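Researcher: Let's do a round of design. I'm pasting the structure tokens now; please hold your answer until I've finished.
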């Protein structure tokens, strides 16, 4: 009797212990898996929110300026303890749209993943500051390559770049939901990474600077020489305006000159005439 009770108790105890251990192991396994997945998600898909202080540190108080335009200045910086180089774009004239709209748009832009689009890593909106953090493109713009370099790129290189840009535009028009009209395709907005892959920058900004893009009419924002004729006539625009600008860029890639050049005889000034 005694022996039976002891054996039964031991068996029950051992059984319970085994179940407990298996259960704990599985919980740990599951936790680890979901952690991995979360990390992957936040790294890969969602652009991160940065504080202004972080960015001030990352860019050493905005000391190294890479360039700028009418509506933004761009600074070089580094995150991940200096291992990842970034470009920080500081918007100067943003329509007052409210934080939620800005964040919604950042998320939409951050979801675009294509090798020919410059990757949005994160953003910051504190008070009136609006900053965008992009991957750093080390080899300058297509404008530098076509108009400033000593050596013209060879035909194979030019063909590759033309295809790269076309793929980027195609993605914006066909695979993005809703479609993104870039509104300012030009060699200055096409950047080169270390291995000379061409990537389109500044997509998605048109809407930020011109909130009424979803309507039928949008004020002209493009750059002279690249603006589609229907836009100049105040008629509704579509993704086709980017196709027109791309055609112009293609001509420039073929001829290695700007589409408007002042220092040549007047009959050659405008490339497409
Ligand atoms: C340049 O971009 C392409 C496409 O995203 C990528 O495959 C390649 O690794 C990049 N080059 C460097 C040096 O980062
Ligand atoms: C472009 O990339 C190549 C190879 O990575 C590098 O040697 C060259 O200096 C870069 N050019 C510019 C203008 O940064
Ligand atoms: C945008 O459209 C709305 C209504 O259609 C109009 O009231 C507003 O003034 C427009 N904003 C700009 C900046 O054009």
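Researcher: That's everything. Go ahead.
Model: Designed sequence:
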């Amino acid at each position: 009797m005694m022996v039976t009770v002891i054996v039964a108790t031991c068996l029950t105890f051992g059984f319970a212990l085994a179940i407990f251990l298996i259960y704990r192991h599985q919980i740990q396994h599951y936790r680890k898996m979901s952690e991995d997945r979360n990390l992957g998600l936040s790294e890969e898909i969602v652009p991160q929110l940065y504080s202004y202080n972080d960015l001030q540190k990352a860019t050493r108080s905005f000391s190294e300026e890479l360039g700028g335009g009418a509506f933004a200045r761009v600074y070089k910086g580094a995150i991940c303890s200096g291992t990842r180089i970034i470009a920080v774009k500081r918007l100067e004239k943003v329509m007052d749209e409210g934080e939620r709209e800005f964040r919604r748009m950042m998320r939409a832009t951050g979801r675009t993943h294509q090798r020919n689009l410059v990757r949005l890593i994160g953003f910051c909106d504190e008070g009136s500051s609006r900053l965008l953090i992009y991957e750093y493109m080390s080899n300058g713009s297509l404008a530098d390559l076509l108009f400033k370099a000593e050596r013209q790129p060879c035909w194979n290189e030019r063909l590759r770049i033309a295809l790269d840009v076309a793929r980027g535009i195609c993605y914006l028009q066909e695979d993005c939901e809703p479609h993104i009209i870039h509104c300012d395709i030009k060699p200055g907005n096409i950047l080169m990474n270390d291995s000379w892959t061409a990537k389109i920058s500044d997509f998605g900004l048109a809407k930020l600077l011109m909130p009424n893009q979803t309507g039928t009419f949008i004020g002209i924002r493009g750059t002279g020489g690249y603006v589609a004729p229907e836009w100049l006539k105040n008629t509704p625009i579509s993704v086709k305006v980017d196709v027109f600008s791309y055609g112009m860029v293609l001509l420039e890639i073929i001829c290695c000159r700007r589409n408007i050049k002042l220092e040549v005889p007047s009959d050659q000034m405008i490339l497409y005439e």
